[in-house]
Amino acid sequence: MRDRESFESANFESESGFDTESPPYILSTDFPFLVWPRFDWQGKKVLLIADSGDNIFTLWPLGVSQIVAVDIARKACFLNELKLAVLRKLSFSEFRKLFAPVYENRLIPRTTPAEKRSLYLKIRDLISSQCRTWLDSEIGVTDFPSPPWRELMFTHLIPHFNSEHAFNVAKDALKPYTLINLPIETALENSDDQYDVIYLSNIPEYIKHSLLMEERDSEISPVLEKLYALSMTRLKQAGSLMLYIFGDAVSQPDLCAHEVEIGEKLGLSLYMEKITFSTPLIEGCFFTHTLIVMTKEKGK
């Protein structure tokens, strides 16, 4: 994992409201991988938000050539290290046990902290010393890594968590990837690389929410425009900038009003992919999220 300062002295800031000590998501809460197959990933170089690591593990089997993962939260980077090591060395059943909840539920058999500790010790030598220092004080001592209900209810959507076959496909396709502990804005500014795809996840939604809560509504468009314009400078001419919206932006255009306005201002093409899914915990209930794709128009 790369960062610009030691964790002890880091003071990263982002308009998203996250900081370097933000707790990690154990399991993915965004599900772009449900529509990943609609795109051509073969040989592509991708930059994305590290998050829980699950989106990364769904990309390798699609043929991407290189992945750079960025996250302001060092614990998210540590979780990526942990999952990478587990996917490499442990079995499907062991993977599920380590990231299973410690509480009773209808979806996955619960696992005790002691069982988690035993599994962790099998892969401890595969992770960095910084990662070990943190995980040594968490796994077996606390409930970590136990996903909360809001994450657990959609585990069936995550291929390598739901299916042994998908787990083995992900394991076979797995490659090392770069982890950078910085805000996405800083990482983009510091990079000279060009990417085929940049996936910002729902960071723009966090920015909107953070600025609204601080009554800085008028700053939303300028902050997002700067982020999108900066992202475009790191994209190849035929590259794509992808954003995730927790809602149906096709039926509710207000959810992507800033993106449409900024896209027009920057001369970008914009289209949306609807992502519809359900959970076995709520019968007959369906959810719709949206993947927004922004590309450079010809001649721009």
In short:
The chain has helices spanning 54-59, 74-89, 92-98, 113-123, 129-136, 149-152, 159-162, 164-173, 184-190, 203-213, 220-233, 257-266, and strands at 45-49, 66-70, 178-180, 195-199, 235-245, 268-278, 286-296. With 300 residues, the protein is an alpha/beta fold.
Principal-axis shape: globular
Pick out the low-confidence regions.
3-11
How confident is the prediction overall: mean pLDDT?
93
Spatial strand arrangement across the major sheet: 3-2-1-4-5-7-6
Structure description:
The chain is an alpha/beta fold. The chain has one domain: 3-Layer(aba) Sandwich (Rossmann fold). Helices cover 36% and strands 17% of the residues. α11 crosses α12.
Give me the secondary-structure topology:
Elements lengths: L44 E5 L4 H6 L6 E5 L3 H16 L2 H7 L14 H11 L5 H8 L12 H4 L6 H4 L1 H10 L4 E3 L3 H7 L4 E5 L3 H11 L6 H14 L1 E11 L11 H10 L1 E11 L7 E11 L4
Please give a handful of descriptors for the protein shown.
300 residues, alpha/beta, Rossmann fold, seven-stranded mixed beta sheet, 12 helices, 36% helix, globular
